[in-house]
Amino acid sequence: MTSNNQEFSRYTVLDSQPATGTDAAARPFLAQVFMWMFVALGICTLMAVLCAFNPSFSSLMYEVTPQGKSLTGLGLFFSISPVLCFMVVMFAFRRLSAPMLSLLFLLYAATLGMSLSVLLLVYTQGSVVACFSAAAVMFGIMAILGYTTKQDLTSFGRLLYMGLIGIVVASLINMFLGSPAVNYIISIIGVAVFTGLTAYDVQKLKRIGAGLEFEGTSVNDTNKLAIMGAFTLFLDFINLFIMLLSLFGNRKDS
Hints:
Layout: H1 23-53, H2 55-61, E1 62-65, E2 68-71, H3 73-92, H4 98-122, H5 125-148, H6 154-177, H7 180-215, H8 219-248
Antiparallel strand pairs: 1-2
Helix pairs in contact: 1-2, 1-4, 1-7, 1-8, 3-4, 4-8, 5-7, 5-8, 6-7, 7-8
């Protein structure tokens, strides 16, 4: 788990969008969604690597104490910045223009990467790369499944959201208990939940994209929905990666 629990940030504006249309109409929308997601993932990864291994960046985020490395004041600010960006997006989505929303999304990705740089200091590079690769493969398989399946995953999605709420509650309780066993169970359930949510979210986004041709949605609103879709899938991937790393990652001090 990361210190600021970014794995539990999700946005539900997409749930009220149309669910009709053709697959051909959905493809350009999904291409835009995945383009934004990959850009955000690249920025997040770059910032994590820079903050973990570049002395200039690392000194801004961490300071050496007798107990080890700890966050500086600026590091603490960047650790909570993703939450602030998320809150602005959540409450001001309808009032924000597409360019401003995209800027906030990329800022979120950058500050989240800085926050997640601690993972590269805690876990071995080999285990981080292995878990990232495993997350990419699992995400890709479930994204294809969500796009191609003819089965309606809506009911399945509701169960996954219930599981997500359970993870949140259990994680908050375990912040006080500090139980490795509970954290292990949460991570197992988390892998299952975020793997399933990937398929559900891709299917939902496919339906949204297919429905746009009948709704007369403006270019600005279409771009905003694409960015929010990328936001959702980006979080699915990051959360899956964190859960896998919590389960299988090798710590440097072990």
